């Protein structure tokens, strides 16, 4: 296998290795994903992103997707994720530059995402609806998703939200004091979540400002999580702790989140390119 071009990008420190496979020239094993994502032996990233040609709807060539690109998301453990807001903004920025357009549609396994170039290095993504039913997270059994009766140390009674992937959002007095390295994995693997879950520790700073730290399913602690920021705003709004729009302060910076009247969640924030390079074929043949 020949070396593959890649670009390293990030949204508020949430970093990605992005590969272009729109010609269908390669496939990646789970072991190869883990090797590329390894921060000591590979390139290193929170998620590996593969751009693909959008699939035809219903498998029919006469009903092609309206998307400009399909984005496949891999966690560092090799598992696949349904949503990543920061990666969506990064990929959208690449496609906008390529097409010389300010609006594109990115498709993921969770659906179609409308993306806009807001100028000044900022991009917005409509992350789709906030899914709040216990079946949508999904949970192992019927529960009130506004008050999930689970706990892990200081993390108690979270709100469950699905923003293309599952989230357990815990309200805390001090987000900085929560040891997510210890308690994040406990919640991620709780038997209530058959597909595991992302874990957010959220401190309300005001009606329109919250602090969030995150343990991502399959990735661990990251500097930022776009879908997690969306889930955090929805959760605090559901409990009447904030309005439906707020700045979410993450370890890597600030995202602006708005829970729209149509139930969709809009996320806005910056993207940046770190560097580009070529992947050693040995990484692609790992395993």
Describe the 3D structure.
With 287 residues, this protein is of the alpha+beta class. It folds into two domains: 132 residues, Diaminopimelate Epimerase, Chain A, domain 1; 139 residues, Diaminopimelate Epimerase, Chain A, domain 1 (Roll), CATH 3.10.310. 17% of the residues lie in helices and 39% in strands. It contains five helices and 19 strands. The strands form two sheets. It has a 17-stranded mixed sheet that branches. A two-stranded antiparallel ribbon has the order 9-10. It starts with a strand and ends with a helix.
**Rg to the nearest angstrom?**
18 Å
Oligomer: single chain
What percent of the residues sit in helical stretches (DSSP H or I)? Answer: 10-25%
Low-confidence stretches: none
The portion of residues forming beta strands comes to: 35-45%
In CATH, the topology of the largest domain is named: Diaminopimelate Epimerase, Chain A, domain 1
The CATH class label of the largest domain is Alpha Beta
Task: Kindly state the number of beta strands.
Answer: 19
CATH superfamily of the largest domain: Diaminopimelate Epimerase, Chain A, domain 1
CATH architecture descriptor of the largest domain: Roll
Number of helical runs? 5
**Distance between the ends:** 14 Å
Mean pLDDT rating? 94
User: What is the total number of structural domains?
Assistant: 2
Specify the biggest β-sheet: 17 strands, mixed
Q: Give the helices and strands as they follow along the chain.
A: EEHEEEHEEEEEEEHEEEHEEEEH
- Could you say which structural class the secondary elements and strand pairing correspond to? alpha+beta
- What sort of overall outline do the alpha carbons produce when their principal axes are compared? globular
